[in-house]
Every structure is written in structure tokens, then in C-alpha cells.
Amino acid sequence: MPFEIDAPNDQTFHASPVQNILILAARGVRDDAGAPPPPKPPEPKPPRKKRFKLGDRVTTSYGTVTVAEVDGKKYLVDLDGQSARLWTEDWALRKA
Predict the structure, then answer these.
(1) Interval 81-91: pLDDT, tens
(2) Are 72 and 34 in contact (CB under 8 A)?
(3) Distance between CA 70 and CA 64 in Å, rounded?
(4) Which secondary structure element, helix H or strand E, spans residue 20, and what is its range?
(5) Where in the chain are the domains?
(6) Reduced 3-state DSSP string for 65-94
(7) pTM higher than 0.90, yes or no?
């Protein structure tokens, strides 16, 4: 059964159901206009507090070390008893 579609200039067209869908799609009328909006993205987490400060004694996989420098989430640690310093992430450190 043909459908009647109003054209922009008030002319009436007779179209089959398939043509009706194509015409509506060409005019920008969406089939899912009543669908709910997509979910909102999750809120960003607040920045973490600095867990350690200069001079803190912490434990890493290398042993007990001293924090020498802090840069965001990275820590430069001074390996005690050795002449070496390493950058490490905050998740790899524990309070000594």
C-alpha cells in the first residue's frame, strides 16, 4: 500500500514503504528519533595527592631507598649504599 509524503513545496508523492524510508533518510529524518541519548562518559578521576616527598624512605623491588626528586607520578629514588638513582612510578613504592 503506498504512503503519501508531503514534499517541501506542498506537493504530495505516493511512495512504497521502501521508498518512504529512503525519502525520509534523505531528508534527515531518523528512524530512531525517539531512542534515548547515548550514556555520558564517566567523570575523570581527581588527581592523586603526592604520596611521598623528598627525603622519604620507601621500599621498592630494589630494596629500601630514599626519594630524591618528584615529577608528577614519577619518583627519582637514590639506592642506598650504591651510586645509582632510578626513576620509578608511584605504584611501585611503599612506605618504609
Answers:
(1) 788 888 988 88
(2) no
(3) 17
(4) helix 17-26
(5) 1-41, 57-95
(6) EEEEEEECCEEEEEECCCCCEEEEEHHHCE
(7) no
